[in-house]
Amino acid sequence: MSAKRLFLLLLFVTGGISNLYGQTGKIVGRVTDASTGDDLPGVNVFIEGTTQGTSTGVDGRYIVIGVRPGVYTLVASFVGYSVQRHQEVQVNVDLTTTVNFEMAEEIFEGQEVVVTAKPVAVKKDLTSSESRVTAETIDKLPVNELGQLLDVQAGVTTRDGIHIRGGRSSEVLFMVDGVPVSDSYDGSVSFEIEKDGIQELQIISGTFNAEYGNAMSGVINVVTKEGRSRKIGGSVELYSGAYAVSGDGGEAYLTGTSVEEFQNPATGVQYADVDPYSYLDFDPGHFRSVKFSLDGPLLTERLTFYALARLFENDGWLYGARLFNIDGTPGDGKLFPMDTFKKVSWQGNLKYRLSNAMSLSLISLGTNEETRAYDFIRRWAPDGRPAFTDDGYDTKLRVTHLVSDRSFYTVDVATFRRELKGRLFENAFDERYNDFDFNPPDTVLTGGGRFARGGTWLGRGARTTTSYMLKSDFETQIGHHHQVKTGFLARVDNLDFEAFGLIPATDPETGAVIEPFVPAVPPQTSSQFNSFEDVEPFNLSAYLQDKIE
């Protein structure tokens, strides 16, 4: 049986219980009489604005599991006692928040007591080396993207990938809403998450729980936002900016003009005292960003949505001058941005509450990036540089089922796709390709400088990773001291890779190189052509863990 058929079989067997509560925390506590200190059984304890809650046992204790990370108001009510509200109760992924109530007898009908929860200085159930950032903290930080947010965390660097404690990027497990989103080819991340779409960020750098498999140096766990059920809200953010560069003569330096004006009279050195980057005139639109978000109920409070999208463009601060066209003929001499970047990212969550105990969610994230990197050699013939694209998508279907006030199960059905390309022209046989780099015409100066006077990048590469995942977790609270969790993950990947450099076409009869240059793809059997197709690794993992408190 092939890996893909096995995955479809697993999907069929478990399809009847599909959905997820995962990436949650827990609230526990005790309710006592304020005057006597006696335990109060049967007290109703619930999270305001949600359907989650429970009642205290004979010992006055209560447990609420499966709570999404966030800040809540916890309410306790009991006949004959004043209703008590604990505000600003912070819940974190995988951690237990303790909230105790001391309830006083009701003197006036409808009397309430409001208490503001104090931040927990020492988290007793934190056994890992980790850092957490909540949505409230993220809003106060001067960052826009997840990568910038990771940069300000201790032990994390994002240069040439994400590294934790000096480990490789492939040694980091990256998860979004409890589902892995790392590229199986190299362990990298396929898309960017905007800060406004993050509910909580968790970075674990040591002693991982059993549920976090395939991680060596660290775990990055992102919980995304979902829509509110009672009101519609949103935001719009626009900004643009410029690079502040002082000095004069940069444009002349790039184009090789006004030599006498910018030549040192003592040494005769040209442009010696010129800031080579002063070609940038003040332009408030060198980089620009547009972002909007919207969330709330859709037709009914049972159906909610969250939507976020952003467009970011940057012309960069490295320019060239189009002195030559790709065929070596004189260009228009205009300045040309050579380090451009464009990104479109989005995030969506559509959630339908089937009942007070079960909900169905459709979650999607994605990013499209296009980069044309600076090339010093081609600074006078910038049109010959290649474009690189990196497109990533992640979509999952999630159902949440709270079986009882102490047990719930989750299942995710997810798909992930990443596609990378590097090329100058989309068509490999585009007639604009030429071999100017290797055979400059006689009219062009020879030597190393010939590479800056025309030519096209002949390399072409493409890589695709498509993944299908089925993830299930079951969590239950046994007594007051044991929080047992078990689950499995089945994953099928499909990998494709192709890379080659175009070569001159030859006459099929004589074998002679066709003049002028005609692009051709090297034989697939040659060393110049590297590829693999439909590689399908299959992974199946399971875990069982007990959190003893």
Structural class of the secondary structure composition? mainly beta
In terms of quaternary structure, the protein is single chain
DSSP helical segment count: 4
What is the residue-averaged pLDDT?
A: 85
Helix content: under 10%
N-to-C CA distance? 44 Å
Largest sheet: 11 strands, antiparallel
Keywords:
31 strands, elongated, 549 residues, 5-stranded mixed sheet, 11-stranded antiparallel sheet
Description:
The chain is mainly beta. 5% of the residues lie in helices and 46% in strands. It is built from 4 helices and 31 strands. The strands form 7 sheets. Strands 17, 18, 19, 22, 23, 24, 25, 26, 27, 30 and 31 form an 11-stranded antiparallel beta sheet that branches. A 5-stranded mixed beta sheet has the order 3-2-5-6-9, with no helix packed on it. A 5-stranded mixed beta sheet has the order 10-15-16-13-14. A hairpin with a 4-residue loop joins strand 22 and strand 23. The radius of gyration is 30 Å and the shape is elongated. The two termini are 44 Å apart. About 3% of the residues have low confidence.
